Amino acid sequence: MPETTAPSIEIRHLYKIFGANGQAHVEAVKAGMTKAELNAKTGHVLGLRDIGIAMPGGAVQVIMGLSGSGKSTLIRHVNRLIDPTSGEVVIDGTDVVKLNPKALQEFRRHRTAMVFQKFALLPHRNVLENTVYGLEIQGLPRAKQVDAAMRWIERVGLKGFEQKYPNQLSGGMQQRVGLARALANDAPILLMDEAFSALDPLIRTDMQTVLLDIQKDVRKTIVFITHDLDEALRLGDRIAILRDGEMVQQGTRQDIVLRPADDYIAEFVRHVNRGRVIAVEGVMTPGRDAVPTAATVAAGTTLEAAAEVLAHSTEDALDVVDGSGERIGRITLRQIVAAMATPHGAKPASVAPTEPDVAPPPIDDETLPPLENIGRSVVRAQAG
């Protein structure tokens, strides 16, 4: 059931209150009751408060936040591993929250795939059999299962390892299997919950590169959860930052770095290498009328790369051109240096949560399964 166009996702006024009767406390939370007050007075835990995000189709939407911010809770609402207490999850005009069990089963099987931090591979299956598992659930003929699986096994760099078992692979190789399994399903939405967080730094960077290379071709709608700012800035077409279950800021990487919403975000981005993040169109002077210079750079070029072009040029400014070669603006050396400079003097902000994390009450239909079992939870959900 392949999709030709990646779907958009819109989260609207999403609330999640963990507890026996979260619905009864939504209005109090909307009226301003804090997470600490809710827990102290009712024994319920506020997971998400009034989250709204518009995720464009075919783009990488990063959800970033520290531990306890609600980012993993949020991503599980997209495929309804968690049901919201209030709000909507609208995918191409359809509210997933309102799907009946059969429609939800079809949605999970054909429109979403998930990659987890703990790999969630089946230990008794080799690489090939792990990769075809979702296709088995879909009921595809065996030949098509193997053909799709082998194509993605090769694409993620595991050709020749088809008969190996998870305990024979490194962590990075196991995560490649998880990625191949998700891609083999041909689902237009890819959910990645801290997918690379358990990997060593060099392997993590390598996996980021693999994902970006694949995304150039497949153009899926990817929701990527991370607590790492460098990873968010490298992968995200758009970034949303959560704190204590609330949205602090969302926008492009340039929005986050150049225009932090408050001191909390400013502290996050204080030591970012801005020259590798900000593109020339983010700081150029727009316009088409000035006399052209001898040197040009394409829109999307980073400031660091533009500075290198200027270093080998006799000019002190560059024309910025679009994909068709049309001039859309000009950027000067002064603008580049000013934008690359790390801002000073901003009031430091603590990045620790303002309220202590409180575990959700032990209620069977609300709490999350252990991380090591989450893969099985998805399999059960997909199987209906």
Automatic annotation (TrEMBL):
<dbReference type="GO" id="GO:0031460">
    <property type="term" value="P:glycine betaine transport"/>
</dbReference>
<feature type="domain" description="CBS">
    <location>
        <begin position="284"/>
        <end position="347"/>
    </location>
</feature>
<dbReference type="GO" id="GO:0006865">
    <property type="term" value="P:amino acid transport"/>
</dbReference>
<feature type="region of interest" description="Disordered">
    <location>
        <begin position="345"/>
        <end position="384"/>
    </location>
</feature>
<keyword id="KW-1003">Cell membrane</keyword>
<keyword id="KW-0029">Amino-acid transport</keyword>
<keyword id="KW-0547">Nucleotide-binding</keyword>
<dbReference type="InterPro" id="IPR027417">
    <property type="entry name" value="P-loop_NTPase"/>
</dbReference>
<dbReference type="Pfam" id="PF00005">
    <property type="entry name" value="ABC_tran"/>
</dbReference>
<comment type="subunit">
    <text>The complex is probably composed of two ATP-binding proteins, two transmembrane proteins and a solute-binding protein.</text>
</comment>
<keyword id="KW-0067">ATP-binding</keyword>
<dbReference type="GO" id="GO:0005524">
    <property type="term" value="F:ATP binding"/>
</dbReference>
<dbReference type="InterPro" id="IPR003439">
    <property type="entry name" value="ABC_transporter-like_ATP-bd"/>
</dbReference>
<keyword id="KW-0129">CBS domain</keyword>
<keyword id="KW-0997">Cell inner membrane</keyword>
<dbReference type="InterPro" id="IPR003593">
    <property type="entry name" value="AAA+_ATPase"/>
</dbReference>
<dbReference type="InterPro" id="IPR017871">
    <property type="entry name" value="ABC_transporter-like_CS"/>
</dbReference>
<dbReference type="InterPro" id="IPR051921">
    <property type="entry name" value="ABC_osmolyte_uptake_ATP-bind"/>
</dbReference>
<dbReference type="InterPro" id="IPR000644">
    <property type="entry name" value="CBS_dom"/>
</dbReference>
<keyword id="KW-0472">Membrane</keyword>
<dbReference type="GO" id="GO:0006970">
    <property type="term" value="P:response to osmotic stress"/>
</dbReference>
<dbReference type="GO" id="GO:0016887">
    <property type="term" value="F:ATP hydrolysis activity"/>
</dbReference>
<protein>
    <recommendedName>
        <fullName>Quaternary amine transport ATP-binding protein</fullName>
        <ecNumber>7.6.2.9</ecNumber>
    </recommendedName>
</protein>
<comment type="subunit">
    <text>The complex is probably composed of two ATP-binding proteins (TmoW), two transmembrane proteins (TmoV) and a solute-binding protein (TmoX).</text>
</comment>
<dbReference type="GO" id="GO:0005886">
    <property type="term" value="C:plasma membrane"/>
</dbReference>
<dbReference type="InterPro" id="IPR005892">
    <property type="entry name" value="Gly-betaine_transp_ATP-bd"/>
</dbReference>
<comment type="similarity">
    <text>Belongs to the ABC transporter superfamily.</text>
</comment>
<feature type="domain" description="ABC transporter">
    <location>
        <begin position="33"/>
        <end position="269"/>
    </location>
</feature>
<keyword id="KW-0813">Transport</keyword>
<dbReference type="InterPro" id="IPR046342">
    <property type="entry name" value="CBS_dom_sf"/>
</dbReference>
<dbReference type="GO" id="GO:0015418">
    <property type="term" value="F:ABC-type quaternary ammonium compound transporting activity"/>
</dbReference>
